[in-house]
Amino acid sequence: MFVDTDRPIADYAADARRVVDAEVSLPSGVRLEWVGQLKSLERAKKRLTLLVPVTLMLVLLLLYFSTQSVVETAIVILAVPFSLIGAVWLLYLLDYDLSIAVAVGFIALAGVAAETGVVMVMYLEHAWADRRRSAEAEGRTPTRRDLREAIVEGALLRLRPKLMTVITIIVGLLPIMWGSGTGSEVMRRIAAPMVGGMVSATVLTLVILPSMYLIVNGWRLQKA
Q1: pLDDT per residue over 185-199, tens digit each?
Q2: Dihedral through CA 125, CA 130, CA 134, CA 136, nearest 10?
Q3: Domain ranges within the chain, ordered by starting residue
Q4: Concatenated DSSP letters of 124-148
Q5: Prediction pTM value
Q6: d(Cα 171, Cα 207) in Å, to the nearest integer?
Q7: In this structure, what DSSP letter does residue 27 have?
Q8: Could you tell me the fold of the domain covering 43-223?
């Protein structure tokens, strides 16, 4: 029997299974199997339960190898969830349910946010290192004011490249969002988290990451 529904397949199947189990008794030798898109969804979920943790571990390792610092790696990872806020809001406005395609879009968004976050932290680190060397050359200890000025300098250097990255990604994905051909339903759900998330990822990179960097290194400076 074929069933079509406007509801999310997983929710509909869960309700249908409860009703069938409660009201239908199968004769001996007869079995009931749920197939079609539902079976594909279940297979994809099993793969994602394995792939998502592996992907996160690889991202953590790559971040650590790039920064050579546990603290800076933690700053980037803890800030990444802020980039997902725009994706969640756009999915809500478009009335898209959580699906495998949406999950793929979230994974891609998290990768882009982590990448831009690493670049921002590297800019901040280089600017702060230059300020420390300048202070030491003047025979004084670096102050919190030096740290703030270094953060402003590093963030400003990253402003233009970040805006170029965001505009390029959004402009490249908008045709997919407006597409209507074969497979467009799936592609739109992959692109939607990226489009919405890049807006909040911009705020993440230009505001939240520098703020977290200031808090952590300000604490280190005060402790020293």
Answers
A1: 778 888 888 888 888
A2: 50
A3: 43-223
A4: HHHHHHHHHHHHHHTTS---HHHHH
A5: 0.72
A6: 23
A7: P
A8: Multidrug efflux transporter AcrB transmembrane fold (1.20.1640)
